[in-house]
Specification:
Helix content: under 10%
Number of helices: 2
CATH architecture: Clam
Number of domains: 1
Shape: globular
Radius of gyration: 19 Å
CATH topology: outer membrane lipoprotein receptor (LolB), chain A
Distance between the termini: 49 Å
CATH superfamily: Lipoprotein localisation LolA/LolB/LppX
Strand order of the largest sheet: 7-8-9-10-11-12-13-1-2-3-4-5-6-14
Number of strands: 14
CATH class: Mainly Beta
Order of helices and strands: HEEEEEEHEEEEEEEE
């Protein structure tokens, strides 16, 4: 194992995180383009580094989405006073960029926790490229993931399937400071459905605030006890 790989693995498995940030609030705008049609989604969210996250979608009608580090998801509709409850690892807040960046996981963006193994590290044109091998349960769909860092910040990811076809690209840019951590305000993801068909999703965060700057009361919002549960 070479010197750079040892350093990289140390960063990946470090348990340290940005302890001076306890909570974050932001606005979110998601723009999705597919087959010439574009949809825009706006939301307000709050994230606590303890793992709790609440997102408010105001239109076309209010919806509150609650999720936590255990993958518990609740979607509350105040108009109907109903709540949908589900649990799945993919709903965990530990799969969000807030977790990756505020908990010092930006070295691998959660790949190691999903079972990917570091296969190669190389340096080209001022960036670091790491190649991650897929775990057996995912190998039939994903052969490897390529992750590119500029300095300490990830700027690009690429997912490749067993036939060597690129199935997903993710770009991270427009970095700003959250506490002492660099955080990408804009993420663009391209999902390649076929060689000629793709979905492009651009997610932009704004009005980012931390700790005492946070004026939103979303984290204190609770679902009424009389809400009807839908499964």
């Amino acid at each position: 194992m070479n010197y750079w790989k040892i350093i990289f693995l140390f960063l990946v498995f470090s348990k340290a995180y940005n302890q001076n940030v306890r909570k974050v609030s932001a606005t979110m705008t998601m723009r999705t383009a597919h087959k010439g049609k574009t949809t825009n989604t706006h939301a307000e969210l709050c994230y606590a580094t303890s793992g709790r996250m609440i997102t408010l979608f105001p239109k076309p009608s209010e919806l509150y989405v609650f999720n936590n580090s255990n993958g518990e998801l609740k979607v509350y509709d105040p108009t109907k006073n109903t709540v949908l409850q589900q649990q799945n690892a993919t709903y965990s807040t530990e799969t969000t960029q807030f977790f990756f960046f505020l908990h010092n996981r930006k070295a691998d963006l959660g790949l190691s926790s999903m079972g990917f193994s570091l296969g190669e590290t190389k340096f080209e044109n001022g960036v670091m490229i790491t190649i991650w091998k897929s775990p057996t349960p995912l190998a039939k769909n994903i052969k490897r993931v390529e992750l590119v860092h500029k300095g300490q910040n990830p700027i690009f990811m690429k997912y490749v399937d067993p036939s060597e076809r690129t199935i997903k690209k993710v770009f991270y840019y427009d970095y700003t400071k959250l506490g002492s951590v660099d955080f990408p305000q804009t993420i663009t993801q391209i999902d390649y459905l076929t060689a000629r068909d793709s979905i492009v999703t651009k997610t932009a965060y704004g009005a980012l605030k931390v700790n005492e700057q946070v004026t939103s009361n979303l984290l204190e919002f609770s679902i009424p006890a009389n809400a009807k549960i839908i499964k």
